[in-house]
Write a structure and sequence with these properties.
single chain, 231 residues, alpha/beta, 16% strand, globular
């Protein structure tokens, strides 16, 4: 079965996604900014409200994926706090000034996560060499998912790149999580063509397809059904 991850920004989003058949949530706030760190209260409330795993983003601001010492101090505090909430995993991403994965910072986050796995998010799509950045992430056992649009604004424009990343990840502990720009009807053919085993939805399963609207349970259910049917 192809894993379906859905972005939630509220408790009601989380419940609707679960009812629709989502396998996992990514919990964020500030969807219009690409997702920022949610409050501890929201994390705990969502974890209590659903039975499916809740992955939580830690992103202190939307200016850049290159963080300074003060940013990392905030990130580490947030990660340590989240490790106590019942969250399933931490979603992070950081690059250095050269456009490579900031491995030193990633190691610090892994340490702060206290055993929780990590998803490395779409910061990788801004790396100067995406396959090389992915290869770097494969060295970290804690990084179990990499969310990517293949370096394109929409993942639907990056089928060959995603297919190559899936091949690169074959036999490893890490899953390519394809996302950004999916539509309900396009996702199943895309998965069939690329071999991707996990997909990520945001606006595509919201009312009117808008990020500012709530999750539409029926859209989630439609995606789940199409993925299951392989159509």
């Amino acid at each position: 079965m192809i894993l379906l991850e859905v972005i939630a920004t509220t408790v009601s989003d989380a419940r609707a996604a679960e009812r629709g058949g989502a396998n996992r949530l990514e919990l964020i706030t500030a969807m219009g900014e690409g997702g920022l760190t949610p409050s501890i209260g929201l994390i705990e409330s969502v974890v209590e409200a659903v039975r499916i795993p809740v992955n939580v983003i830690v992103r202190p601001h939307s200016r850049s994926f290159v963080y300074d010492a003060d940013d990392f101090a905030v990130i580490e505090r947030d990660v340590r706090a989240m490790a106590k909430t019942g969250a399933n995993a931490i979603v992070v991403g950081m690059l250095n000034a050269h456009g490579d994965v900031d491995t030193e910072a990633l190691e610090r986050v892994i340490d702060a996560a206290d055993g929780l796995p990590l998803t490395f998010h779409r910061a990788i799509d801004e790396a100067r060499d995406l396959p090389a950045a992915f290869e770097t992430l494969l060295r970290f056992d804690a990084v179990t998912n990499v969310l990517t649009s293949g370096g394109k604004p929409s993942v639907l424009e990056a089928g060959p790149v995603i297919k190559a990343l899936v091949a690169q990840a074959a036999g490893t502990h890490c899953t390519v999580l394809a996302g950004a720009g999916f539509t309900v009807d396009a996702v199943a053919p895309f998965a069939a063509a690329t071999g991707v085993k996990a997909v990520h939805f945001g606006s595509g399963v919201r009312v009117h397809g808008k990020g500012s609207e709530p999750v539409d349970e029926l859209r989630v259910a439609r995606v789940r059904a199409l993925l299951d049917a392989g159509e």
